[in-house]
Amino acid sequence: MSHPVRAARRRIQQEHLSVVEGIDACADAIADPWDTSRTTDREAVVNGLRGTLTESGILEALPGVLADAVDATGCELPARPVAEPPYVVVTSRGPVLRATIEPGRLVIRFDAFEIVRDPDPGRPPTYRRLDGIGLEVSLE
Description:
- The protein has a 5-stranded antiparallel sheet with strand order 1-5-4-3-2.
- It is 42% helix and 28% strand.
- Helix 1 (3-15) crosses helix 4.
- A hairpin with a 2-residue loop joins strand 3 and strand 4.
- It has helices at residues 3-15, 17-31, 42-56, 58-73, and strands at 38-39, 88-90, 95-101, 104-116, 126-139.
- The protein is of the alpha+beta class.
- The termini are close together.
- The chain is globular, with a radius of gyration of 15 Å.
- The protein has one domain (3-139).
């Protein structure tokens, strides 16, 4: 893991714990009504998560998290990030933040769900709620 990746991860873990906890609470709110720990309804996961993140104010906070993580790397953003692509995207796994910086593309994933693929290609994947939030930071 490179120094910028460590610096960005550390900044998020130390300064933005409330945002990570907020993402966790939003994901719980989506998964709580499920009959099982899984669903095959990708749209319900993505749209539900986007809706709860918006309602809670977390979605609007994510560009600030991205800007702060970039600052921790010692780099600068060419433009102010917004809560929309290409900077912030809500996927079936959780929110993804992206920024192009001097050494490459900084990608921050907040994994709240995992995709479980069936060996039968005719069956849809399922989305399972993870226990907590997996924070993945990479420089690509």
